[in-house]
Structures are given as C-alpha cells and as structure tokens.
Amino acid sequence: MNYIAELDCINGLPSVSVFWNFLLAEKIRILLIFFIPILLSLLTLWIYSINLKNVMKNCPINIRINCISLVSIYPFVSIFSMIAISVPRTYFFNDSVGHIAFMVISWQFYRLCMIYVDGESSFIEIANDTSFTLKAPPFCCCLPLKRSSISKKNFIFMKFLIIQMPFTHIAMFLVLNIIYIEDIQAFDNLILYFIPFIAITVFSGMWGYNLVVRTLSPYYSSLKLIQKYFAFQLVLFYCKILPIILNFIMKKIITTCEDPAFTILVKRHTVIQIHVQIQMFILSVWAMNLYKNPMGN
C-alpha cells in the first residue's frame, strides 16, 4: 500500500456509493452499521411520541411550544447522527445541524423559565431584596464577582449571555461548512482558530443558564428546573465533549483499515455517533419523567 492509499485508508471519507457498495458486500457489517442506528432512532422517536402526548395533555397552552421544543432535540440529534453514519462525507454538516439546533432551542429553556415565574418583573417582586451573585460555573472562581440585589439589569445580562449563542454559532458554523465544502485541508487548518471562539461563547451561555437556574430554583423547587436544565445541557456534552474523549480512546483501539471504503476515520465516526444516539435515547427517557407533569406538584 503506497503512502497516498494508506493516508486515505486512515483519514479518508468515501463517497456514499463506494461506502454502500462495500457494506452490501459485508452482510454482518450492514446489521451493525445500519440496523443499530435505525433502531436507536426509532426508540428515541417512540419516547418522543410519549413526551409529545404528555406535553399536549398536561401543559398549559402558554408553555406548550417551549416544552415541545425542548423534548424535540433528542430525536433531532439522533436522526442526524444516523444520517452521518449512513453518508460519511456529511459528518461535519450533520454535526453542525445538531449543534445549531441545540443553540436555537436553548433559548426556549430560558423562555420556559420566565413563563414559569410569570416574567422577570414578577420574580423580582417575589425575590424582593434577595442577594444575587454572578459566581456560577464555569466562571465561579476565576473572576472577582460581587453580590448585588436581583434587578432588571441582572436579567438583561443573563439574557445576553444566552441569546448570543444562536447568533454566533450559526455564523461560525455556516462559515466552517462553506470552508469544509470548498477545501477540506484548509478546513483542518482553520478550524483550530475557531475553537477558542466556539468555547468562549459556549462557556458564556452555560454561565448564563447556570445563573438563571441558581436564581430561580430556590423559589420553584417543584418545577425541577435544575433537572430539566441538566437533561437539556447534557445534549451539548454528549455531542461535543464525549466525541473528543471517545476519539482519543479509539485512536489506541481502532488501528486497522481493511478497505478504503471503511476507513479508520469512518469507524471512529460510526462508534461516536452510535454512542451519541444511545445517550439521546437515555436523555429522552429522563425527559419523559421530567415533562410528564411540566408544572410540578
């Protein structure tokens, strides 16, 4: 095997026709590569249908759209993970779609929290002069932050931290996908410069959500805001952080390439996406419990 062929066998992404011709010749791999992702997507969709039924039955009209949006992220990510497995060259595009969907839907969690408490002004009256602190993960220890009373300015600040995520990430991932389509080598070099900006905006958004949940949850414990927050926020962890960990582990485990149609990179992507699908199913089951009675006790 020459150097170019060896390189393609490690990092190459075959076309859909080459990939599926290889899979059709390997009957056992068809079951593993195709059947398992479809099964996981169908199971997640089944749980989603139960979640939809619970939301439509138990949710007041004013929070129905918010709850439906939040429980929709799990089947959405699962289906696009299945597509990423089936069409290897669309891996980054499908990953981007799931990522942007999370960022857009994340705003619905903030809206749900505000509807729960009858708006910012109403909560400020309830909280009265309760102390408000900006010390929350991930910036609880690295910044000199002071306490203050809860005010409109606090909510404007938290809202800005949250709402910047959809806009910045749509712009960044649109540019990255254009670069990826035009020149994959340029993409591999340039994405390193995007990572710090992606990380900063994500951490800022997480900070905003942590502030919101920590501020509201002591007054509305029956609404399970912390649990709902983690059930939603873990989507980002399993779609972004978990793949990095798995990729590092699989570099030590998956080292052989039998055919350029089933490269080492394709194998790693397949394992990662199946793990993502498993986690989406588990989170959707958790969401089923959380949104069975969305208004709490």
UniProtKB/TrEMBL annotation:
Keyword match Membrane: yes
Question: Which branch of life, at top level?
Answer: Eukaryota
Main localization is: membrane
Where's it found, cell-wise?
Membrane
Q: Quick check: keyword Membrane in the entry? A: yes
Q: Which Pfam families match?
A: Solute_trans_a
Spans through the membrane? 28-51, 63-85, 156-179, 191-209, 230-250, 270-291
Alphabetized, the UniProt keywords read: Membrane, Transmembrane, Transmembrane helix
An annotated GO cellular component: membrane
How does the UniProt record describe the way this protein sits in the membrane? Multi-pass membrane protein
Name it.
Organic solute transporter alpha-like protein
